[in-house]
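Case study.
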Amino acid sequence: MSDIEEHRKKIEEITLEMIKLLKTRTDIAKQIGDAKASLGMTVTDEEREDTLRTQVAKLCKEIDLDQSTASKFLNLLLNESVKVQSDNKQTHLSMFLKAKALEEEGKKIIHLEVGEPDFKPPQEVKTALAEVYDKGYGKYGPTKGITELRKILSKDSTVDIENIMICPGARFAVYLAITTLLNPGDEIIVIEPAWPAYKDCALNAGIKVRTIKTTLETKWEPSIDQINNAINENTKMIILNYPNNPTGKNLPEKLLDNIMQTAKEHDLYVLSDEIYEDYYLDDEPKKIVTYGYEKSIITKSFSKSFAMTGFRIGYAVAEPPIIEKMSKLQALSLTNVSEPIQYVALQVIKSPFEAIQENTETIEARLGILVESAKDIGLEFIEPDGAMYLFAKTKYKDFDATKFSEQLLERGVAIAPGEGFGDYKEFFRLTAIDETKLKEGMIILDTILKELYG
Ligand code: PMP
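After joint prediction, the assembly is written out as follows.
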């Protein structure tokens, strides 16, 4: 055998051995997952991960292996473990699907779990839909979106047209940003509680998530120390979402300034999901675009501001090289966002003020009612600054919100269990829906709570 053949044979054997070890590792991870579930423990245990990381770093020194390669490899292994252990988590989406199934059986359900405005999109939508055919919208189009729409949106965000890309919802924009800007083994920072898709997108792309746990006691605010402690040489992005889903929280300006400063110092991308930008109560949240940071990506949407969730249209705001990367994957996977829908969005945004104003006022009033009735029944929470939710817990010790959500659903009210947003098993999220249904839902919630725990 020649030298090269001999080496190839060895590489083959080592690779197959590694795959076998991966199988053994995955099986054990599953068993640990079952044990964690029965003990009520969370899937991700960052302390454990750090212990493993330290051991790997030590070994790298001993055997003279590049530490960053090893830690990327370790991140992939950790992600696999998280994936196999995350199967049974209840999220707002899984509760919604259960609620829908019950409705199909004829049961009446009050939806306090779902994250969409339950009012209609503006009238302009109706007119525009009727015009689409005659105007000739309905062909393939430019990947980044139709020029007129990009132009108006760029003015709104005080950027240039090259900074805008239309996407089928903010969700896809988030997906594009995470998958095209980062590589497997890279790390992102997610401040929890958080919308679950950030973590899921990263896991799907082999990217390691470092979670920062915030608490009710610290008003859901992360500290700069927490962020600094989570940053290492593999960290490439931090995700912000204010007003926040699920807490409704905005960050104090000084803290946001400090976070942006930290991101700049470490050359991190800042993915700021500003989908709830129009839903705020007192002070308009500071927009990330005002920092002029070249590594920021801002995601926005027509879903919430205009109650157009089902139209699937949103957009990303970023520097052209970032937009270029994201648009390559969008071209590959979608060609472009549906032209008729872009036309509808264009007509809506041309006369935005009244529609947004009206929706903002509706959400504001509903949040007020939600806060009052949550106070009345003794829930514990921070009053939201915006968005459409309230993230609360009860005064009862050992309260399990996942179990409670299941029990409440049987009595006709769907809520979103906190475990879908991170390590928050005692919390649940309530959506600010129509007043009558909201009040009815809160009465049932209170009754069942007292019945089970009182
Ligand atoms: N970001 C956040 C924080 C959300 O809550 C949601 C939807 N619930 C999305 C993005 C997705 O928005 P879109 O409908 O524009 O995809």
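Observations recorded in class. The two ends are 78 Å apart (CA to CA). The chain has 15 helices and twelve strands. We will return to this complex in the next lecture.
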